[in-house]
Please model this.
Amino acid sequence: MTRLRVFLLAAIAALILFGGVRMWQEARYGTGPQASAGALEGPAREIAFVANAVEGSISLIDVAERKIIRTLDITPDGKRAGFFRDPLQSLAQGYVEGRAGLNYAQDTDLSRDGRVLFVSRAYLGDVAAFDLASGDMIWRTPVSGLRADHMALSTDGKHLYVSTLIFSGDRVDILDTESGAHVDSFTAGRWPHDVHVSKDGARLFTASLGDMQAEPDERGRDPDAYLVTVHDAETLERLATHIFDAGIRPFVVTGDERRLYAQLSLTHAIVARNLASGEETARIDLPVADGTSEEDWDFDAPHHGLAMTSDETLLCAAGRASDYAAIVSAPDLELQNIVPTGDAPSWAVLAGGDTLCLTPNTRSDDVSLIDMGTAAEVARVPVGRGPKHISVGQVPEDVLARGAN
Model:
């Protein structure tokens, strides 16, 4: 038997084994499907979900009470992928973590009924769903690449759109929220990052970073880098492509889909883009604290976190490098206030009917609550190790009562 034939037979056997293991793990891990796309029912409380990337947990903060009411372990199956759990990820996890550090909790989305939390588990390369009442994992699904990144929930609550990175084919995976089944995927720009669903649920917006494994000057030569792509949510056809001059970090789109605001890699800028004409209509370079250097931010992103009020007149931007939140008016992008926060705020979300901006502070392991009216930090809540992301949603009282620590 020739060496080539031996190699081919071994490769085929490996693929069959890997495929068999993958089907086994998808079918058997977790408590099983759980419907969660129905409407919220009964009394509920506003809860902030803080993704503690290094610890592998989610801190639940009662926004009104400004305190943690529960901590959810989102790695009950362990912090190593393991060969029989995910063969490819088990081989790659050490390499990825060696280059980028520990990250077991990248993003969170709350189900429409407020009873299930979806977590993209970054360098575990999967998305997992958790029953908030019991804390049990419902399902886990490996994604296309070696990193599960940011997510968005469809307006009907039936699908999750998950950006995937590192040898992923630049795919955004579409998962069924009930079972975790992989429904479909589409190709966005190089290294898709933040993803949003239009207000009516008909379109998907995905922003790309460019290949973060390449040097910035090489990264920008790629025609698929630095894109915001717009896709039809039903057919997945690409409807529009918007090209930027740097990687697009967190971004927001106005309700009429005519304007987009974005933070950009390796800058302290927020830009406004007219989506009809493609023109940049405004730009602001936010202040940089004395002594700030590239050591003060991670992953080429000195600013990383952007939230817009429901009336679309104000933006709250996380200034990771200089440890502040900036309140900026829209659409003119005029600086209104700078509010000091904890160390390295890395996301931003609005709560309390747009009266509060919340930022998870990655290096000080806490969350700043900022009053948008007075432009002052009104509370700082300690959380777990390495908080990177935060989301807010309404959780039924009965779920919180059953899930109390």
